[in-house]
């Protein structure tokens, strides 16, 4: 079989490298949290709802950066699984608000140690002297609005 060489254009592409790094991080998450645990997106939604009781789905889109239609499907599945509860806002009948259920809290409690383990593993891959600047760079990229 022919040996495959690296593609220099891809090695220089920030987009490609971020995408590849994200896939590696997702693989580590699956290894640590397990295939039967909540997904990273589900975890993000559960954390955001837990820390913002009575949050609307519109605000949840802003906090998680999950697009509106994907989030609507995700919230629907989390409600069907019994992790979230949705009800009409007392002050605005046009608006639904979300709350974590007891099952959702348990799912978070189970997943949190795994996510902490993922973060430790990812941090260990970055030289210690670069971790702070790397995290800052990721935050800048994550917070950038296009």
How is this structure best summarized?
The protein is mostly helical and 146 residues long. The protein contains seven helices and three strands.
Protein architecture, described:
- The protein has helices at residues 8-12, 14-33, 40-51, 57-64, 68-80, 102-124, 131-143, and strands spanning 55-56, 84-88, 96-100.
- A hairpin with a 7-residue loop joins strand 2 and strand 3.
- Helix 4 (57-64) packs across helix 5.
- The longest helix has 23 residues, at 102-124.
- It contains seven helices and three strands.
- The protein has a three-stranded antiparallel beta sheet.
- The termini are far apart.
- It is mainly alpha-helical.
- The model has no long low-confidence stretch (mean pLDDT 89).
- The radius of gyration is 18 Å and the shape is elongated.
Structural class: mainly alpha
Which strand order do you get reading across the main beta sheet? 1-3-2
Taken together, the total number of domains comes to 1
Can you summarize the main beta sheet? 3 strands, antiparallel
Percent of sequence in beta strands: 5-15%
Please state the oligomeric state of the protein chains shown: single chain
Distance between the termini: 43 Å
CATH level-4 homologous superfamily: Winged helix-like DNA-binding domain superfamily/Winged helix DNA-binding domain
pLDDT averaged residue by residue: 89
Cα radius of gyration in angstroms: 18 Å
Keywords:
146 residues; mainly alpha; 7 helices
Detail the topology: elements first, then pairings.
Elements (H helix, E strand, L loop, with lengths): L7 H5 L1 H20 L6 H12 L3 E2 H8 L3 H13 L3 E5 L7 E5 L1 H23 L6 H13 L3
Antiparallel strand pairs: 1-3, 2-3
């Amino acid at each position: 079989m022919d040996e495959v060489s690296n593609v220099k254009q891809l090695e220089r592409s920030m987009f490609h490298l971020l995408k590849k790094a994200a896939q590696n991080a997702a693989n580590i998450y699956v290894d640590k949290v397990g295939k039967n645990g909540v997904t990273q997106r589900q975890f993000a939604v559960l954390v955001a709802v837990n820390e913002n009781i009575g949050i609307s789905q519109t605000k949840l889109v802003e906090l998680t950066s999950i697009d509106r239609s994907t989030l609507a499907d995700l919230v629907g599945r989390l409600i069907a699984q019994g992790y979230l509860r949705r009800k009409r806002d007392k002050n605005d009948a046009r608006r639904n608000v979300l709350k974590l259920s007891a099952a959702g809290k348990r799912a978070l409690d189970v997943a949190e140690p795994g996510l902490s383990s993922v973060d430790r593993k990812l941090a260990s891959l970055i030289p210690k002297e670069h971790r702070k600047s790397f995290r800052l760079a990721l935050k800048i990229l994550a917070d950038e609005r296009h």
